[in-house]
Design goal:
Serine Threonine Protein Phosphatase 5, Tetratricopeptide repeat; 59% helix; Toxin ADP-ribosyltransferase, Chain A, domain 1; 9 strands; alpha+beta; 4 domains; three-stranded antiparallel sheet; globular
């Protein structure tokens, strides 16, 4: 297994004089009073990241890869190599916390990987994370408590905290705190600080009686460790008389009303609603839907190295990698992974299994994007035959295949063949889709394009106008599809020398442009000039007659 530790290695090796006051703390922020989609996505991602990591069912009882990885990082550090040897020989799950608080390779690598949210490394640490969480839960601190933590942070980091007052902060690393304020302050070295750093003291109120909070527990007589991913409501930040920034916050639950709605909405969007849906592909799918393609790729490639070749989910992993590379426009790599999944599924599925058809459909789409229309058509045709066997002749999946085969035939300039597929798909779309479904509009648009190529302008106009009616009822007025329909209809009327009708649609186009563009925009000016030109042609006709 090849792991990505080039970035991690210098960070760990340079951390030989590490103190808690200057350790890295990674955070994600959710500001309830500001609609910032990116920061909200990052906040949700940080929570789902740990949730999925701790729930996916991967047997990592064999820790050989973690041990090998750690030995490679510390190959020149005899002290740490001795600790690795001890860990390999003696570790058990009830020792997780004691190993974490020791100044060894485990906490150093784990904390850096958590800061970087390095998926492949954290997969190797999954058993250790699970053991820590279990120990924290078993030894959950029993009562409400105020905790303290001193930290040195940069001016830029301090500003992020200031900007987040009233919102929520997820601390994505383990967070050690102290019972005693003075003991926490004693961690500071009061020599002169660089201008870019600030002393900060966290004052944290934590109540274990709240539902659905991350666990926290004592790790010695003076300290409590809070689980990675703990969420806090940030209530206040101020500078005291000792030039110390005080950050006051409260441990809170994901059941908090302000958080619950955003979590539920995001989980629904990502297709992840409850624990029963969790499998090893869930997290990769979440990354994919969040458009974190590089992270999703890394996750699935890590799974290939971790899972045995005969694992039931390996074909799903291959298939999902096909999706990732397709979205990255790497169609050759996408085809490789789709075909690897197909090879497995053909051995275990019946010949009429819809999953086979879906894979052929994905393969065909990649060939189409590569302009390899013959291979695309053949694969769509294989998908079509399977869908017919699995369902029936008038199923919506059959209609989608017919439409796709029509598109490929059109790309090959075989317009009669394309028209036949489109017209066979049309009654199936009309049966299964609502009258105003955009896909039905797209099919009418495809049919109109073929009729235009066949020089049957009246039929082309008929289907363009049907498409326009559908789009106007299902899409915003300024949607590109509506603009395209208006342009095409106006142009065809112009070709027919029906200038009055052409002007009607150019004027409709003008109304849309005036809502989305300025009067001086070239596209607005060009459209107005077209209207004036057609008016002049009408006048010329009238004068001749």
């Amino acid at each position: 297994m090849v792991l990505q530790f080039d970035e991690l290695l210098p960070m760990i090796q340079s951390d030989q004089t590490h103190h808690k006051v200057d350790e890295s703390v990674a955070i994600s922020v959710f500001k309830t009073n500001i609609n910032q989609e990116q920061s909200t996505m990052e906040f949700i991602y940080s929570q789902l990241f740990m949730e999925c990591l701790l729930q996916i069912e991967i047997d990592l009882s064999d820790r050989t890869q973690l041990i090998s990885f750690c030995r490679e990082i510390y190959k020149d550090n005899k002290i740490q190599l001795n600790s690795i040897e001890e860990f390999e020989q003696t570790y058990s799950s009830n020792q997780a916390l004691s190993w974490y608080i020791r100044d060894t390779f485990l906490s150093k690598i784990l904390n850096k990987a958590l800061c970087m949210q390095n998926i492949d490394i954290l997969l190797l640490f999954r058993f250790f994370l699970l053991d820590i969480r279990q120990q924290l839960e078993q030894n959950q601190y029993p009562s409400s408590v105020r905790l303290y933590r001193s930290l040195l942070i940069s001016n830029e980091e301090l500003q992020i905290w200031k900007d987040s007052i009233g919102g929520f902060v997820s601390i994505n690393t383990f967070f050690s705190t102290k019972f005693n304020r003075q003991l926490a302050l004693s961690d500071f070295d009061y020599s002169t600080l660089p201008d870019n750093l600030q002393r900060v003291l966290f004052e944290i109120d934590a109540d274990p009686r709240l539902n659905n909070i991350k666990p926290f527990s004592t790790i010695n007589s003076s300290e409590i460790l809070m689980m990675s991913g703990s969420i806090f409501r940030l209530s206040n930040i101020h500078l005291n008389d000792d030039h110390l920034w005080i950050i006051q916050m409260k441990l809170c639950s994901t059941h908090d009303e302000s958080l619950q709605s955003i979590f539920n909405s995001m989980k629904k969007t990502l297709g992840y609603d409850n624990k029963e849906q969790m499998n090893i592909s869930t997290f990769g799918n979440i990354l994919w839907k969040m458009n974190k393609l590089d992270e999703a790729e890394k996750y699935y490639l890590s799974l290939i190295n971790l899972l045995p070749n005969n694992h039931l989910s390996i074909a799903d992993v291959y298939y999902n990698l096909g999706h990732i590379y397709s979205d990255k426009n790497d169609y050759d790599s996408s085809l490789k992974w789709y075909n690897k999944s197909l090879e497995i599924w053909m051995k275990i599925f019946k010949s009429n299994n819809p999953d086979l058809a879906n894979t052929y459909n994905a393969i065909a789409t990649n060939y189409w994007k590569k302009n390899d229309y013959k291979q695309a058509f053949d694969s769509f045709n294989k998908a079509l035959e399977i869908f017919k066997q699995a369902y029936d002749e008038d199923h919506i999946t059959v209609a989608m295949c017919l439409n796709n085969m029509g598109t490929v035939s059109s790309n090959e300039n075989n317009y009669s063949k394309a028209l036949n597929y489109y017209l066979n798909a049309l009654p199936l779309f009309q049966k299964h889709l609502s009258n105003n479904h955009p896909n039905l509009g797209s099919l009418h648009c495809n049919i109109s394009t073929i009729y235009k190529h066949l020089n049957q302008i009246d039929l082309a106009l008929e289907h363009l106008q049907l498409a326009l009616k559908i789009y106007e009822k299902s899409l915003p007025k300024e949607h590109p599809n509506i603009i395209m329909m208006l342009k095409n209809i106006a142009f065809l009327y112009e070709q027919k020398e029906d200038y009055q009708q052409a002007i009607i649609y150019y004027e409709k186009l003008s109304k849309v442009y005036h809502q989305t563009s300025t009067a001086t925009d070239p596209i607005v000016i060009q459209n107005e000039e077209k209207i004036q030109y057609l008016l002049s042609l009408i006048d010329k006709k009238h004068s001749v007659s």
